[in-house]
Amino acid sequence: VSCDSLPDADRFCDDAIFDDGQCDSFPCDCDGGCDACCVDPSRDACDASPGFGSHQLVRGQRNRFLDGCGSILGTVSKLALWDKRADCHHISPQTERQVLAYLRRNRLNSVLVRSNQYDPIGEWGRLVANKRMAAPWKYTFGTYDWLKYTLIPGRLLGGDWYNPFTDTVHLYSDIPTIGLAKAAYAKDVHSRTLPGTYAAAQDTPIIGLWHESLANAEVFRYLGRNGSQADVSEARRILIPDFGGALGAQVLGFFPYGSVYGRAAGALTGHAYRGLTESSVVQQASREGGSTRR
């Protein structure tokens, strides 16, 4: 089977993303067709499927020592979210597929996903080439973000994020909902009339939490329409403590070690809030079920 023999390549490409069985069973013998070729067929059969959108995905080369150190340094994130996948520096194809599927559904074709990759030269090129951003924003706030990316490498220190000035999602955690939240921020920026002004404002303390709340709400809506109730619950389990941790880190970030303690306290508060709200929902559903039976 080849890409040219597909009657509707775009439709198949969408199916390949959302249907694991069809995707995994499809061989990769294409050469430049259906959006992109294989990135690393040995990783996962789906990566080799035509139309997977691999032109939007690049992976860092595996380095056990570097990634092992990065995973150890990500212990704070693992504890804050109570999830060993946080900042683990080993992103599964399944997580990558979910992020790429979201980008495809929302026609965010210019967004690049860097999966545990460090490429400052490539990021500078994307900064310069990004026509959505006005030059004053690109070469001030954009340059600042590029310097942070270059001098404080997430490949070692972790921290999933979306850079609106280079239009790039950086993934270091194997948690799909976090990747979706970063992709949702990309959708938010793309929808703005003045994306540079909006992105620059989101770089400021406290105000920057606004886009996180919008992105989280978008993920809940997206999973509510396209996922299961278990997916929504998993998103709440991750995103509510993550938001609480970000809030705590920013509030206490002005004090020595305040970011660390603030993130821990905020994440604990987020876990507690999620537990209380889910308990109230379950109790309400139980009461409604009992009244219906009567």
Structure notes:
Strand 3 (161-163) and strand 4 (168-171) form a beta hairpin. The N and C termini lie far apart (59 Å). Strands 1-2-4-3 form a 4-stranded mixed beta sheet, with helices on one face. The chain has helices at 9-18, 20-25, 64-73, 75-81, 93-105, 120-129, 135-151, 154-157, 176-190, 195-202, 209-226, 229-251, 258-293; strands spanning 57-59, 112-115, 161-163, 168-171. The chain has 294 residues and is mostly helical.
SSE blueprint and pairings:
Blueprint: H1 9-18, H2 20-25, E1 57-59, H3 64-73, H4 75-81, H5 93-105, E2 112-115, H6 120-129, H7 135-151, H8 154-157, E3 161-163, E4 168-171, H9 176-190, H10 195-202, H11 209-226, H12 229-251, H13 258-293
Parallel strand pairs: 1-2, 2-4
Antiparallel strand pairs: 3-4
Helix pairs in contact: 4-13, 5-9, 6-7, 9-11, 11-12, 12-13
Distance between the termini: 59 Å
Largest sheet: 4 strands, mixed
Strand content: under 5%
What value does the Rg take, in angstroms?
A: 20 Å
Structural class of the helices, strands and pairings?
A: mainly alpha
- What overall geometry do the principal axes of the alpha carbons give? globular
Instruction: List unreliable stretches of 5+ residues.
Output: 1-53, 288-293
Share of helix, binned: 55-70%
Average pLDDT, rounded to a whole number, is 79
Q: Count up the helices.
A: 13
Task: Write a concise synopsis of the structure shown.
The protein is mainly alpha-helical and 294 residues long.
Features:
294 residues; mainly alpha; 13 helices; 4 strands; disordered N terminus; disordered C terminus
